[in-house]
Amino acid sequence: MSINPLVPPRILGFTLIIFSATLFNSCGSTANADLSRLDPIIEMSKGPCYGRCPVFTLTVYENGIASYEGERYTDRLGTYVKKLEKGQMERLLGEFKRANVWQFRDSYRGRIPDMQSVTITYREDNKKKTITGKEIRPNAVKWLETQLDQVAQSEGWILKEAPQDNVPDYLIPDQLLVELEGGSDPEEWAKKFAQADMLFERPLNDSGFWIFSYNDELITPDQMLEQVRMDKEVISAEFNKRIYNEMNKEEDEEKDTGSKAPKDTGDKPAAKQSNGPGE
Q1: Which of 1, 171, 188, 210 could crosslink 239 through cysteines, CB 3.0-4.6 Å?
Q2: Helix (H) or strand (E) holding 234
C-alpha cells in the first residue's frame, strides 16, 4: 500500500483502522451466514471413486456467498464459506447461460464403474436442472465443472463448521467384512496388513465373508477400507455391522441348543456384490 504524502498521518491511520474493521466484519458476516435461509443457484457434488478423489459439495447462493462441504480426500474437511467477487459471480452465471444447460439430459451413463460421479444443479427463476454423469458427458458440462472447480480450489475460504464423526451407530469402524477370492486363506491374507495390526476374527456364518479387525489408531477407517478394496484377492469389502455380529451369536446359540437355524434372516449379505454386502 502506497502512502499519499498529502494525507496527514492521523487521517491515514484512521483510514487504515476503518479498512481493517470493514474487512474483519465482512469475513465475520460471511462466516455467520445462515445458509439454510439463502437461495442456492448453482451446486456441484463430487462423489467417491476407487482412488483418492476429493469428495465435496460446492454451493453458490444468489447473494454471492459460496459454501464448500469437504467430506473425504480434500484439504478442507467440514463446511467452509466465502464471498465471491461481483465479477467472478457474473462470469460464473454467464457461463451457465451460454451453456444452455436445459438442452442436456439429466443423466449420462458412464462406462467405467469406479470413475467419480459428478452432479451439477442450476436454478434460474422457477426452473431447476440437474445433470449427473461420469466420464461421458457433453464438453459444455465438463467446462462448467472446470469453472466450479476453480471456485472450489480458490483461496479465501473461512471455516464455518468443523467436520463431525458421521460413522453410523450400526457400523463397527475397526472391523471389516471381506469377501475373498476362492482359495484365499483369511489368516494368511490378513498378514498383508500387519502394519495396521489386522487380525482374522471369524467367518460370517456360511456366507463366504470373513470378519477382520484392525487398529484404527494406526490408520483411519476410510483409508483401511480403501486399501483392502484395492487388494487383488478381494471381491468386496465393507465395515462390519452390529447386526451381523448378532446373526453370528444367534447361530451359535442355535447350534448349541441343536435347533435348526432359519433359512433366511433377511439380513444376510449377498455374495458377489462389488459394493459390499448390505449396501
Answers
A1: 171
A2: strand 234-241
